[in-house]
Write a structure and sequence with these properties.
Helices cover about 80% and strands about 0% of the residues. The chain is mainly α. The chain has one domain. Helix 2 packs across helix 3, helix 3 runs antiparallel to helix 4 and helix 3 crosses helix 5. The longest helix has about 30 residues. It is elongated, with a radius of gyration of 18 Å. Keywords: Membrane, Transmembrane, Transmembrane helix.
Length: about 100
């Protein structure tokens, strides 16, 4: 572990080397500590999770209230949106930080 990790009392050993480097660069670029950066990543993950749940609620409403054609269009757009958000680096990293409870 580097000195900065020990100073922040954050154990990043469960993350890959590339993810640790990404977090350190993000922290240095923003002028934040690593624990503050991890909190921001968790906030991004939770925000995207709420957005996806909101889209799912709209999809259920669309299924109940509308014609089949518009529901299938919405469903395809929903899955495309979920896939795009799941592969964004901050969202995936935020999910890992949340899952491993690093802070």
């Amino acid at each position: 572990m580097k000195e900065r990790d020990v100073m922040d009392n954050v154990d990043l050993s469960k993350l890959s080397e590339n993810e640790r480097v990404y977090i350190e660069r993000l922290s240095e670029g923003e002028g934040l500590t690593i624990s503050e950066t991890l909190k921001r990543l968790i906030r991004v993950f939770k925000g995207v999770l709420i957005f996806i749940l909101l889209l799912a609620a709209v999809g259920i409403y669309e299924f109940v209230r509308s014609e089949n054609g518009s529901f299938y269009t919405y469903l395809s757009i929903y899955f495309f949106t979920v896939m795009v958000f799941c592969y964004m680096a901050p969202v995936r990293l935020g999910a890992k930080v949340f899952y491993y409870r690093l802070i």
